[in-house]
Amino acid sequence: MRISLLPFFLLALPLLEIAGFVIVGREVGALATVGLVLASSIAGVLLLRYQGFGVMARIRTEMAAGQNPSRHLAHGAMIVVAAILLIIPGFISD
Question: What is the pTM of this model?
């Protein structure tokens, strides 16, 4: 019988994030912790905005040239995942 680890991961990640908040908050203080979380979220939004538009432009030029844009699509998907992980509050997922 094969057991999926996805439910365990989905339950463990929020608990790890809370533990990360407590540990970082204890070391640097509550205000600095909130500032770090906001800074990582802003970095995620900026990454998604600027890199996302750049990837879309490269995909358009590849398609206009009649070439396969799959490499740029994969690169764009990785950028989106990275940006989403930065936007989600927490220190473990960053």
Answer: 0.75
